[in-house]
Every structure is written in structure tokens, then in C-alpha cells.
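Final report, results section. Input specification for complex C-07:
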Amino acid sequence: MIRYRARWIVPITSPPEADGIVAVDGERVAYAGPASAAPPGDEVNLGDVILMPGLINAHCHLELTAMRGFLEDLDFRRWILRLTSARQAVLDRDALLDSARYGIEEGLRAGITTYGDTSDSAVGIQAMREAAVRGIVYQEVFGPDPSQCAKSIADLREKVAGLRYLETPLVRVGVSPHAPYTVSDELFKATASLARELMLPVAVHIAESELESQLVSTASGAFADGLRRRGITVERRAESPIALLDACGVLAARPLLIHCVRVNAADVDRIASSSSSVAHCPVSNAKLGHGVAPLLDLLEAGIPVGLGSDSMASNNRMALLEEARVALLAQRAVSKLCDAPQAADVIELATIAGARALGIDAQVGSLEVGKQADLAAFAIDPAVPIQDPVAALVFSISGARARFVSVAGRVLVRDGELVSPRAGLAERMQSLADALAAWLDSGGEMQGSV
Amino acid sequence: MIRYRARWIVPITSPPEADGIVAVDGERVAYAGPASAAPPGDEVNLGDVILMPGLINAHCHLELTAMRGFLEDLDFRRWILRLTSARQAVLDRDALLDSARYGIEEGLRAGITTYGDTSDSAVGIQAMREAAVRGIVYQEVFGPDPSQCAKSIADLREKVAGLRYLETPLVRVGVSPHAPYTVSDELFKATASLARELMLPVAVHIAESELESQLVSTASGAFADGLRRRGITVERRAESPIALLDACGVLAARPLLIHCVRVNAADVDRIASSSSSVAHCPVSNAKLGHGVAPLLDLLEAGIPVGLGSDSMASNNRMALLEEARVALLAQRAVSKLCDAPQAADVIELATIAGARALGIDAQVGSLEVGKQADLAAFAIDPAVPIQDPVAALVFSISGARARFVSVAGRVLVRDGELVSPRAGLAERMQSLADALAAWLDSGGEMQGSV
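Structure output:
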């Protein structure tokens, strides 16, 4: 038994405790409460920190970490085109794997212990296993042409079969029909059906851009034009992107709905009544000009909402305390409310609600006896007095300074440093950035297939 | 002559340079450009950093730093009441001075070299002199009752006379009629007149809350009710808060207009045609539920806009790179634009445009030969490749990690540490926080005078 002592513990599902202890027995939490009542054990005093459950990043693209800063200030269609063509031209499997490894190292430094990773290459599963972190790798599937559907599904089935051999108690496989502008109705239906057959979790990018809504509800706009140029018939598909998922049976698979910026009251009802969940990505949504998702409405409807960094190509930081802060600020700015959401609400998004959104809240997301010992501790500046540790986490603590991180009891960050950083990774990331820049300089960017 | 070498320099008024040097001769910049063409001198290699002009915080309340976390989730009127009564009851002059000192230490750690400090006690002037930073201390004046006007102005004249003895080449004195809900029309007029007579810079909180707009344009709402309870006659004063300042002659003094969340097209014209400037405080405006100021409209009109942290009671961090990032995100989220403002635009707000807003752009705000050597350098994570240093400053670099800071050539932060931290300050700040909490617990909060 190890006793981790901290100036504050924030268990999430119970009130903060000053001078608290979290006792860990093997991979599980054996106690979380005041030091005065803690069981005996070897004590590690973490000092001036807030100790809490490891943060849960409900949506990221680990393989795209190398693209940070490579796609600034592009409109959404050009952003997708450059991303897609650069990935194909420059990033081979080894590069994508390094990219995922580095994404996890950055996440660990920011106290993130669980990763909801949406991925074309699925390298995230290897990177998560190596790093001993927790997560779900959603294998993406693409195919806007209905005639491709059977082949796409056969490929997906084969990929998933291979990936499931790699599953561990920490890492699971799911599927992700990418988005309405890259997936036909037929492929949505077939993927939902496959997911139910194989009992796989599902994630889907939805209701993100205005272009996507135009494509779905009026068969117009740049996405519609692009598909028509490829000889694909484009007709009105549904009254909204969420209604489309409902009609295609995707909501019946209780998916993780990524973004949900453009949802109306009927859409919120559809999400809630189907017991689907949402990955809220406020920095990405703001930076790409999509807007602010109606977080307060989603929470009011009882929908489990996690917080996602999205990819480093759109964010550009994996720092979930920062993400929580921006979630709160953006929501208050738009709602004109001075007291909603509160700091505790957005810290829940980053912990227990994120766990609920990923369907793993029985294992993680709070400091409770019997749960997995996924922990993160954040340094308190001794000169910054704390009235309320939860408010301090959101407002006063910088997003990337975890002092201590463990997953299932295994220590991954100690004294603010990764216990096992990967040799040579920083240099290889620099080479990848150079290769991307050279590709761009040489006119590599071209019209892609979106 | 000292040559500061950096992986990148970002001069603001000229393009970034890789492997750059800023040469400093005494208190001035003697060279800023590629290392290959730099003049000889003793070289200090700052390493993997972005070296740029020191950041300019166009609006803060240094004396309120001790109140961080003490005023969460209150509506605006209660927020003001608790702040005012706690300041009176708990924070004596020594406490306010420590608070200002700590605010500057926090600002220096975040690369801030200039402080636009709005203050009741004016302790900021002593704190700035001690710390050898640059700034303007705007002495606040209050008085919603027109019958108090003569006394308020006499007091203000006396305070300013005392403060001007403390002015230095780095630190100047200004005046600030606080806000429409605490200042009568008569006092606005008299303060503007005093400022013109004494050639003092003026700052005023304006167009921040909906309550303020209601008071000014319809003589209704909680501020109006509060004033009436004090026996003060409340009538419609103008069509908008900016129109009120115009009518009272305040715009003729070319003030720094703090907030400007609630301004319409006519207000933007009034601000532009009077050559007034704006302090934009996006985090504070969002956190307190006021909304998002129309930054793009203000910039389009050619108005000089600086970036302000506002007080630690509302923000709660003095981290201007973070503030720039939130400025960009909030604006894009509301405007639904993916490419405006750009990273370079918000970095200008934090540097040269902030200098312009404070009227000191001939001295600071860019790396140009002859300007004051106010410098800040931010560490680049070696594992985070940089495509564009300006985008990296906004999106990828955390807000509080200046490696090096100088003001007028004097080094104040070296290797990420304050050169002269004040002994015992952190402990005294903790005591102040404890005293504030005890005051609150003992029922100290009461109806104040706003």
C-alpha cells in the first residue's frame, strides 16, 4: 500500500480535502480522504499539489501531433484537404506512430491518463500500450460514395479483427464513421450495424461546421460541390446532422458525438433519448471558426459530456485544464451568465463526465475506493493562495504542469518529469516538421478527395 | 553592448528572424535582426526561446492581486460589493502594496514589462518603482452623488500632486473616473477638465456590463435602484455609455476605454473619431458573463487596442499570451471566422498596439533600434517544432514561462527566475488570503455603497 499525500485532494464525487491522502493498493484506489483517517502504508508526500483523478481526453487524434502549426488560418475545407494530402504524402506509418507517441507524452505532462483517439492508421493502440496509458482507439472509416460501402466495411471488419488482438485491460478498440461529408448514408448504416454486431464503441464527428450542415440539410455548399465533382449524387439527407445519424441507426449504437456545435433543441432531445454522449472541443471549435457548442443545454438534458482537445493540427495544445477553462469562458461569454458553468462543472467534464462519455466511469474518473488508480497532481504556486482548489484548477493553474501521474497504479510522471521518455523522439518530431514544411514549400499541396 | 541571441526573434514591426540577435546598448535597442549581421558585443545565448518586446498589460488592478479566487461565481453587482467591502475591511495600505508587488512578480514571470494600473490606493507606483518596471498608475476617483463632486475633485487634485513627485522616466501618473455607476456626470466633466489642465492620461471602465448600460440609457436596473436607495436622483444620461463619455467631455481627453463590450457602430465611430483607445479584457469579460467585445470592428476602425488582464479578482491569471489566445478564440467563436483575427493580430495587441493605446509606442512595443530595451523571451519546448513563431506564441506556448525579461536594459528575469524576488512575499500573500477567508466566514460581507 502506498499513501500519496497532497496539500489538497479533489476526488470529484466528494468534496475537496485539505491535507489529503490517496492510498493505492496495486492498481486500485484503497482510500481517498483526510490524512488523519488514512490507512497505514509507505508514504509519498507529493507536497504543494492538488491530487485528483487523471484527466480524460474524450477526443484526440494522436497520429496528427506532428501537424501542429502546419494548418493555421485555413478555411475548413482547405484545412481538411491540406491535412489529408500531407498525411498521405509525408507521414508514413513510423511517422504516425512517433506522432502518437509524442501526443501521449504531451498528454501525460498535462495529467491526461485516458485518450479517446480517433484514427485512420490506428497507431494509437501501439503507442498507448507502450506508454501504459488508458484509452479507446476508434478505427476510422471513410467512403462518401455509396458504391464503395461494401468494400469499406469489409476493410473495416478486417482492420478491427487485427486490432482486437492488441486490446488490453487498458486499451480498447472502437469504430468511427468519420463525418457526413466523408461517409455515405449506406456506410453509416453498415458501420452502426457492424458496431452492434461486434459490441464496439462508436465515435463520429458531427454537427461541427456550417458546410457540413449545408451538405446534410440542403445538399449545397462547398462539400456538396466537391462530392458532385467526384460524380457522387448529393441530395438532401436529413433535417440536421444529428437527425441523419438517427435515421441511419448510428444513434442506436449510443455513439460518442464529437463536436455538436450545430444542434437545436430537437437534436438535443435525440441525443439524450438515445443515451448518446458528446465530446466537447471548445478550443478547436473556436479556433476553426465553427462557434460554441450549447454546453449548458447538453448538460441540462443530462447528456454525458466529455472534454476533447481534438488534434494538435487544430488546437494546438493538449492541455485539458486549459480546455476546461476555455469551455467555461466561451460558454459564459455567449450565455452572458456569470455563474454557469461553474469551475466544478468543467472539471467534471475533464474527469467523471468524460469517463461516462467513454463508458468507463465504473473504472475511472473519480477518486473512489475500488476504482483504478489513475491519478494526476498539479503544482500549486506557493505564492498563489487557494480559496477553493477546484476554482484554482480551472482559473489559476497553467494547463501543462502535472507533477505526478499514474495509470492503474503505475507511476508515469514523477517530479514533473516523464518516468520513461522515448529516446530521440523530439529530434524525430523536428524532422517530421521539417519534412512537412519542405513538402508545402515544394508545392505539394493539391486538391484532395474531400 | 550586449548581444542577446535567440532561436527566434519576433520584432513585431518586421518579420520574425530565425537565429536572431537583439543587441542592447545601455537602456536601448541597438540592433535587432539576423545573427549574421549583428554588431560585435558580449553575447548571451538565450537558447531555445522566442525573443520579443516585453508584453504590455494595458489594464490591471495590481492592488487586488490578493483577491484571486475570492469572488467566484457572483453576479456583477455582488462581485463589486464584496470586493469593495473586503478591500476596506481587510486590506490596509501595506496589504495593498504587497498585493501590487506580487502582481508585478507574477506579471514579470509572464513576460509583462509595462502595466496600465488602475488603482484606488495608487500603491502601484511604489511597487513599479521598486520592481523597476514600466507603467502608468491611473489614480481612481469615485462619486456617484453630484453634490460630492467638488470634494472628490479636490481630493483627486491633492492625490495626483503627491503622486507626481514619484514619477520616473519609467512610471507615470494618470487619472481614472471609475465607471458610470460610481461617477456622476459632473465628476466625469470635472475629471476630464483636470486631466486636460494637468496633461494627465485618462482611463475609464466603460460599456462593460448590461447593468451599466441600463443605468445610463434607461435609468433602470440594479445599479439605478442602488443609487436611488442612497437618495441619488437617477435619470437617463445618454443613449449609451460611450455617448455619455462623449457628452461629458471625457472622449476629448483621448482616454483609454477599458472593456467596450457593449458598443454599437455609432459608439465605434465616437471612439475612433476622438482618437481614444481601448483596453480589451477578454478573459474577464467572459468569466463575469459580460460577453465578447467587438474586437474586429474596433480594429477595422483603426482604434488602438491593447490587451488587459483586468484584476486577479476577475481573471484570475496575469498571463498575456493566454489572454491573446483567448482574445483570438472568443472572437473567432463569435464571428464564425476561421482566419480572423490571426495570431499576429493578437500578438500586436499585446505589444505595439498596447503601447499605442497607452501612448508610449515611441518608446516600447517593438524591437526597433533606439527603442527602450524592454524584452521578453519565452521557452520553446524542443519537442514542439515551430512552423511560425508568432502562431507558436499564441497557440503552443503556455502563458507563464518567460525565460528572460528586461526593462530599459535591466535584467529582471534570468533563466526563468526573478532576479530579485521579494523576501517573505509569498507567506504574506497567504496570510492575506487567510484573512479574507476569515472575514467572509465571520459574515463580514455586507451591502456596500455601489
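Chain A is about 40% helix and 20% strand. The longest strand of chain A covers residues 17-25. This concludes the modelling results for the funded period.
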